[in-house]
Amino acid sequence: MNALPATSAWNLDADLATLDAARQRRRRRVVDAYDGVRLRVAGRDMLAFCSNDYLGLAQHPALRDAAQAAAARWGVGATASPQVCGHSAAHEQLEHELAAFVDMPRALYFYAGFAANVGIVPALVGRGDAVFCDALNHACLIDGARLSRAQIEVYPHRDAAALGQLLAASGARRKLIVSDAVFSMDGDVAPLRELLALAEEHDALLLIDDAHGFGVLGAQGRGSAAHYGLRGSRLVYMATLGKAAGVAGAFVAGADAVVETILQRARSYTFATAAPPLVVDTLRAALALIAADDWRRERLRELIAQWRAGAGALPGGWRLAESDTPIQPLLIGDNAAALGAMAALWEQGLWVPAIRPPTVPVGTARLRLSLSAAHTADDVERLLRALATLPR
C-alpha cells in the first residue's frame, strides 16, 4: 500500500504524470568518479560540459591537501550554528581574506549560496519596503524577495531604464535592487554600472549575486564588481564558492553596518549549523589559487572564443546566445527537442544538459554548455563535431 487513493487530494502521481507529459521531470544521474571534466557515470566515461567548475579547481591537489590537513586539525563537523560555537578561527580568517580579495570592508560566510540569498534579502528589507528584481534572477533571489514580505517590483531583463521608472514611482521606505551579475541560464551580464548609479540616485542598495563571475571576471578573478570598477557603500556583493572556487558555500561583502545587520537578522545564518572548518580551510587554499593562476582565466577566454567561432559556423541554424562568459547556451525552444539533442550527445559520450521550464521561460528550452579551464581545445572541437551531426 505505497500509493494513495486516486480520489485523494494527495494523489501526487497525477502531478508527476503532468510533469512527464510536459517533458519537465528532472532525473538525476549518479556519478561514480570525478576527474576534472571527465566523469564516470554508470560505468561509462563522459566528457562533461555541465559543471560550474570554471577554473578546474575542484580536484586540485592543493585543495585535497588542504582538506586533509584541515580534517586532521578540526575533524569533520562544525557542531553548531556560527552564533553558538560553530564559528572557528578558520571561518574568521576566511572572512577577512574574502573581504580583502573583493576590496570591501567586511565579509560574512554562509554554508550555501541559496541559503545566503534567502537570508540576505529578508535581513535588509521587510514590510513597507520594496525589492526590485530583474525578470531573470536566480530562484534564490526570487525566494529571498518573497520571504522578505516587501513589495516586489519586477523589471524586464537588463532594462535599466525600466528599473529607473519603477524606482522613481516607488514610495517605499527602503529600496533594494537585486540582480544576478552573470545570469546563470543565459550567460549575459547585468548592466552593473547603471544599476549602481540608480541605487545612488534613488537612495537604494544594490545586491548583486556574482555566483558565475567570481573567480572568472576581474583582475585575478576578483569578480564582476572589480571587473566594472564598482565601489561604494550602496553595493552589497554576494558570491558563491562552489563554482569557480571549486569547494562549497558563499559569502556576502559590503559596508560593516550592512554585513552586521545580515549577521544579526539572516535566519538561514543564525538557525543553521556552520560549514565544517575543513571546508573553510580548503576555501582559503582555493582563494590563493584563484589569485595566482591567471592562465586558467586566459584558457577560458581562448575556449570561449573557439566555441563561439565554431558554433556560429555550425550547419542547421543553431541559435547561439549572446554570452562572453563560460555559460554558453544553445537555444532550441521545444522541451522534447532539447531532450532529444541531449540524448544524442550522451550517446556520443558528451554530457551537455537540457534546461527546460520552469528553470527557463516557456519556449526557451536549451542546451546549457559550461566551459572550464580543465577543457582542452580538442574537447571543444569534439563537441562541435558532434553537434554538426545532429538534425535541426
Give the key terms.
single chain; alpha/beta; Aspartate Aminotransferase, domain 1; Aspartate Aminotransferase, domain 2; 7-stranded mixed sheet; 4-stranded mixed sheet; 14 helices; 15 strands; 18% strand
How many DSSP H or I helices? 14
- Rg (C-alpha, Å): 22 Å
Uncertain segments of ≥5 residues (pLDDT<50)?
Answer: none
**Could you give the order of strands across the largest sheet?**
4-10-9-8-7-5-6
CATH architecture of the largest domain: 3-Layer(aba) Sandwich
CATH level-4 homologous superfamily of the largest domain: Type I PLP-dependent aspartate aminotransferase-like (Major domain)
Written description of the protein model:
The protein is an alpha/beta fold and 392 residues long. It folds into 2 domains: 25-55 and 294-388, Aspartate Aminotransferase, domain 1, CATH 3.90.1150.10; 61-292, Type I PLP-dependent aspartate aminotransferase-like (Major domain) (Aspartate Aminotransferase, domain 2, 3-Layer(aba) Sandwich). It has 14 helices and 15 strands. It has helices at residues 12-21, 61-74, 89-101, 113-124, 139-148, 160-169, 192-201, 224-227, 256-265, 267-270, 277-292, 294-312, 335-347, 377-388; strands spanning 31-35, 38-41, 44-48, 106-110, 130-134, 151-155, 175-180, 204-209, 235-240, 250-254, 319-320, 327-333, 350-351, 354-355, 365-370. The protein has a 7-stranded mixed sheet, with helices on both faces. A 4-stranded mixed sheet has the order 1-2-3-13. The protein has a 4-stranded antiparallel sheet with strand order 11-12-15-14. Helix 7 (192-201) links the parallel strand 7 and strand 8. The N and C termini lie far apart (46 Å). The mean pLDDT is 95.
